[in-house]
Amino acid sequence: MINTDRSVSNMERAVRLIECGMFDQSRLVTRRHSYKDAQSAMKLASKRNDDYIKGEFLFE
Predict the structure, then answer these.
(1) Which residue positions in the chain have pLDDT lower than 70?
(2) pTM exceeding the 0.90 threshold for the entire prediction
């Protein structure tokens, strides 16, 4: 998950909720990026466009 919130505690809490199955993030993920494109993905996420909610890295 890509987080530009800069709040570590919020990110840790979100990860715990996802891991235990209490929160389905699939509806929030609006972008998927290859880990090879991490720099451009972070630039895109930091723009905080209205149509960009959350991004995730794919390690395939």
Answers:
(1) 1-6
(2) no
What does the block give as tokens for 17?
């909720």
**C-alpha distance from residue 56 to each of 21, 52 (Å):** 17, 11
Residue 7 corresponds to which tokens in the numbers above?
Answer: 């709040």
Please indicate, yes or no, if residue 54 is contained in any of the structural domains. Answer: yes
**Rounded Cα gap, residues 31 and 33, in angstroms:** 7
Assigned token pair, 47: 């723009």
- Are 1 and 25 spatial neighbours (Cβ–Cβ below 8 Å)? yes
Burial class (CB within 10 angstroms; exposed 0-12, middle 13-18, buried 19+) of 59: exposed
Tokens of 18: 């996802």
Q: Which domain holds residue 28?
A: 8-58
